[in-house]
Structure formats: structure tokens, C-alpha cells
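Section 3.1: Structural characterization of target chains.
Under the original work plan, the team committed to producing a structural model for every single-chain target entering the pipeline before any wet-lab resources were allocated. The record below documents one such target. The sequence was received from the expression subgroup and is listed exactly as submitted; it comprises 121 residues.
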Amino acid sequence: MQTTLILLAVLVVLIAGAVFYLMRKPKAKRVSTGKNYLAEEDYTGLAQVILENLGGAENIASFDHCVSRLRLTVKDAALVNEKPIKATGIAGLLRPEKTKIQLIIGKKVSLVADALKAIVG
């Protein structure tokens, strides 16, 4: 009788441990380019990475900025590669529509926009 209770208790502990292990939230993997352009104040470098991963200057229909976001419209959404852009140190990337992209950069957004304008022309 005692051994049955001990085995039952061990079994309950093992099952509970397995359930907690399987239900834990996996850690998100982050892609890194190895360079935080904003921290290094390399706004031209950031603008180049953005441009390259949005399909080049010919794929950008328009762009402007507000206080913290760089808002872009692309012609072909299939040419957009989000991962390298997200790995540059920006706070986030949103796609409210298929061809519209918002990069959350922060208070240095005007410097990035100016660098992008200098490259695109």
C-alpha cells in the first residue's frame, strides 16, 4: 500500500514537471547583423540597409516621417526583406498595409530620413 502511494506521488510529480516544461514559452530568436546603427549614430549606414532590404531606390514610391516613425510606401511588397531591417537596432517594424511600412526609430528619425533622402535623391 505504501509503495503504491509513493509510486503514485512520483508519477504525479513527473507528469506535472513534464506539463510545465512543455508549456513554457520559448525564447524568441533575434537575427543580428552585429551592428546597432542607431547606437553608433551611423544614420547613412542604417539608411543603406533599409534601402537595400526594401528592394532598392526604384522600389520606393514615397517616404516621410513623423516624430518617431519613418513611413514608406513600396511598389512591390515581395521585394521587402524585414529581418535585416529589424536587426539594425530600430525599435520595430509595422506593416499596416501590404505596400506600406512603418519603421519605429525614435527621436533620431529625421536624421535617418535625411540620410535616406540623400541616397535616393
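Helices lie at 2-23, 43-53, 82-86, 109-120.
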